[in-house]
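HOLO CASE FILE
Compound: 2-oxoglutaric acid
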Amino acid sequence: MIDLTNKQRNDFFQTGFFILSNVFRPDEIDEMKSSFQSLQETAFSLANLHSEELKPEKETYVMHQGSQFVLGQIRQGINCGQPSIRRVSWCGAAEPLLSEYGNDPRLLSIASQLLGSKEMSQLINQAHFKLPGDEVEFEWHQDSTHRGYGGKYWQDVNGRGSYVQTLTAIDEISQRNGTVYFIPNSVKLGHLNLPRTLNNCLESEKFRLEDAVPIEMKIGSVAVFHPYSIHGSQPNRSNKSRHVFINGFAYPRANSRQYPGEGAGRTVVCQY
Ligand SMILES: O=C(O)CCC(=O)C(=O)O
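Model generated. Tokens follow.
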């Protein structure tokens, strides 16, 4: 059980994010890393089978062993034209160990305290790879957009966002290998309906990208962020992979959309 301090709760609801150190032990991270390695091998085999469909400007979705492998093609640089792994959604179906770690009591206790509910709906159990030279990046966004806020499948039941995203560092994370940048205090803007790119976006007058701060993370630490917190990340410019393990939890009944993957949307309960 992780008992959040008042500062951490304030950081989540006001600044938009905080980082907890040493949540997972090195031996636990090694186990997760082996699962990431298997997923990576599977992803590249699938990419070979689907090579004709892969394009730099689009995502190709392949369901395999209950997980959704999201593949692309590298659009520039020395590996231009090679396949890339954008993400593996509900990765715990293909790698059951990641399903177990995805509802680890430590993650559940963090999310439960912030949501104000012991019972939660787990929507995200996802692997991000960012291999050297793969040019994978995540445009500026609010997670609320990906959850479908403002649409028919989402209701902010607890009136405080109803969603918590956690990002576990499987590798050390720095600015050089594609860390996430957050715009502090963007939570107060609420859900903005940001488009995929911010060019010509009227809403972007409400915040300044220059204010974004990078988070640096040690292996085994967990970043926790609010669904309205504006964030994004750039390609990995180092020569080592940058793996992160994402798990996201919603207040019960906030979501009514079916997420891809066998087991996605499962009910999880914090026992503490
Ligand atoms: O893996 C990354 O760099 C980005 C993660 C992210 O943006 C998210 O989980 O919403």
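CASE NOTES: The two ends are 7 Å apart (CA to CA). The chain is about 20% helix and 25% strand.
CLOSED: yes
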